[in-house]
Amino acid sequence: MKILIADDSRVMRQIVVRTLRQAGFGDHDLIEAADGKEALDKATAEKPDLVISDWNMPHLTGIEVLRQLRAAGNNVKFGFVTSECTPEMKTAAEASGSAFFIVKPFTAERFDEVFAPILG
Amino acid sequence: MSVEVEVDESDLAEMVEQVWESYLDPEGVSPLIPTYDENQPSEVHSSVSITGSWNGHVVYASSRAAAQRAAAAFLAMELEEVSEEDMADTLGELANIVGGNVKAMLPPGAQLSLPQVNLAPEASARFPNAQRISGVYGMWEGEPVSISMWQSSTDNKEEGA
Predict the structure, then answer these.
(1) Taking CB atoms and an 8 Å cutoff, what residues of chain A touch B104?
(2) Predicted model pTM
(3) pLDDT mean over B42-59
(4) Contact yes or no for B112/A84 (Cβ under 8 A)
(5) pLDDT at residue B3, rounded to an integer
(6) Which pLDDT does position B1 carry in this prediction?
(7) Which of A33, A79, B7, B46 could bridge to A38 as Cys pair (CB 3.0-4.6 Å)?
(8) pLDDT of residue B154
C-alpha cells in the first residue's frame, strides 16, 4: 500500500514514519508532503491508499485538503494526526469523511490500534 | 469578564509526561525531574501563541544540550549528528505539541499560531502585557527544561464585550 504523510514539520513527518515502522507498517510505500497544497497534489497524482495528515499546515489546512479531495470525488482513506484536538475539529473531520483522529503525542501502540484494521 | 484558565500545573505536567513517554523517554529511564524553580536558566526556547477564547503563549525552554538530546530522540540520530536546524525544528514541534494540547483544554474558539523558535535564552523573550501563570520546571538528565504558560492581559479587554 502507498501511504502519504502530510505535515509541515519535517521532524513530525520523520516521527510518523518511524512510528509506522515501529508499529510494523514500515514495508508500505511511504511518501511525504510538506504542506496542504503538496498534500492535495500528491493525493491526486500519486494515488495513495491512505493519507495521514496534520491539521494546521500552510497553504491548505488538512481539513481543506480532505474536503477538496471529496469534492473531486476522491475517496482515499484519510485521517488526522494533530496536536490540536477539540470536539469541533473531530466533528468537522468526521463530517468530511475522516477515518481516524490521532492526537500528538502518540505511541506505536496507538498507531497499531488505528492502522491495523486499515493496513492489515 | 475574563476567561478563567482551565489549564493548571498538573494538566501541564501530564502533557509533558506524555511527550516524554512518547518521544523523549520511551524506555522510561530518564524522566523530567521537577525542580519547581521558575528561574532556572535556559539557552534556547520556542513558543506558540493562542488567541481567541484565551490569549497568551506556551513556551518551551531548555539548555542547548537538552535541545540537542531532544532532537536526537525525535529524529532517531546520534547527538553529534544533530544540526542547528534539527534542534530548531524539534523545539518548534515541542512548542506545537504542548500548545495544541493546551488549546484542546481551552473554551472553544481558540486559535493556535505556527511555532516560533529562538536559539537564545527564554529570559531574552518579551511577551508584552503577558505574565507567566503556570509552568513545569525540571531537569532532564541534568539539563534544565521548562514549559510555561503566559497569559496576556488583553483577555480582559476583549472578553469585556
Answers:
(1) 84-86, 103
(2) 0.88
(3) 96
(4) yes
(5) 59
(6) 41
(7) A33
(8) 65
B93 touches chain A (CB under 8 A): yes
Q: Are A92 and A70 in contact (CB under 8 A)?
A: no
Tally: H helices and E strands in chain B: 4, 7
Residues of chain A with pLDDT under 70: none
Q: Name the one residue in this structure whose C-alpha cell is 525542580.
A: B35
Judge whether B28 is closer than 8 Å to chain A, CB to CB: no
Which candidate from A18, A87, A104 shows the least CB-CB separation from B100?
A104
With CA atoms as reference, report the closest residue to B131 among B80, B26, B55, B65.
B55
Judge: A85–B100 Cβ closer than 8 Å, yes or no: yes
Torsion on CA atoms A19, A20, A24, A30, rounded to nearest 10:
-150
CB-based contact, B128 to chain A, within 8 Å = no
Interface contact A86-B93, CB threshold 8 A: no
The rounded distance, in Å, linking the Cα atoms of B2 and B124 is 28
Domains and CATH numbers, chain B: 9-158 (3.40.1550.10)
CA distances from B36 to A43, B9, B49 (A): 47, 11, 24
Question: Which among B76, B92, B97 has CB closest to A105?
Answer: B97
User: Cβ–Cβ of A9/B23 closer than 8 Å?
Assistant: no
- Which tens digit of pLDDT belongs to each residue from B97-130? 999 999 988 998 899 998 999 999 999 988 989 9
